[in-house]
């Protein structure tokens, strides 16, 4: 079975969705750069090694990333899963784990990289918004896309209501992406395009469009 370490910074609802999905993946540890992250408490309560590594205790990004690597490597995971991890990782860190770091971003990449995506979506008058799970490369929020979900932008939306709708979609697509990873269905081409094998059913509901595997 493949193994992962999950990195978080806050509430950890994506982490919870991943744990709840009971994937054929071994979750070896949860690490937070914020010691008070509520997700860290939840991970510990659920029986996972939960480690706080306060980035404020390090003088530079590189020093933090070096220590983060050291801690991660103790668990020897196949993949590093960023679930609301709000630190930019240095190019040096990313280079240590080629095609082995996965992230979720609350927009339809390559649109709206960076922070405050729900505000930006409303400001730009987008009619469709969503979330993306992708492999991490040194260029922020630009790696090969594994899965996306769309949500409508409704006339009365505020960043908060839109964000809730996107978060509900995130909770569906992150476990799905990791299921594909766990079951060897992801193929990453040399040009950086992800293909999913045996993908032939498109299932939709009122708020999201998801690609799912035919069992
Ligand atoms: C999610 O919207 C994630 O995409 C973004 O930060 C939020 C984290 O939420 N990067 P949670 O900690 O998983 O609840």
Q: Any key phrases for this structure?
A:
single chain, alpha/beta, 11 strands, Rossmann fold, 215 residues, binds 5-O-phosphono-beta-D-ribofuranosylamine, globular, disordered C terminus, 27% strand
What does this structure look like?
With 215 residues, the chain is an alpha/beta fold. Helix 1 (13-20) runs parallel beside helix 6. A hairpin with a 5-residue loop joins strand 8 and strand 9. It contains 6 helices and 11 strands. The radius of gyration is 17 Å and the shape is globular. The strands form 3 sheets. A 7-stranded mixed sheet has the order 3-2-1-4-5-6-7, with helices on one face. The chain has one domain: Rossmann fold, CATH 3.40.50. The model is unreliable at 211-215 (pLDDT under 50). The protein has helices spanning 13-20, 38-45, 61-75, 91-96, 117-123, 159-182; strands spanning 2-8, 25-32, 50-52, 79-82, 101-105, 128-135, 145-152, 186-188, 194-196, 201-204, 209-212. Bound molecules: 5-O-phosphono-beta-D-ribofuranosylamine. 5-O-phosphono-beta-D-ribofuranosylamine is lined by residues 8, 10-14, 39, 83-84, 104-106, 167, 170.
Oligomer designation: single chain
CATH topology: Rossmann fold
**Beta-strand content bin:** 25-35%
| CATH level 4 superfamily | Formyl transferase, N-terminal domain
Biggest sheet: strand arrangement: 3-2-1-4-5-6-7
Count the E strands: 11
Q: Helical element count?
A: 6
What is the residue-averaged pLDDT?
93
Helix content: 25-40%
N/C terminus separation: 20 Å
Order of helices and strands: EHEHEHEHEHEEHEEEE
> Could you say which overall geometry the principal axes of the C-alpha atoms support?
globular
CATH class bucket: Alpha Beta
Bound molecules: 5-O-phosphono-beta-D-ribofuranosylamine
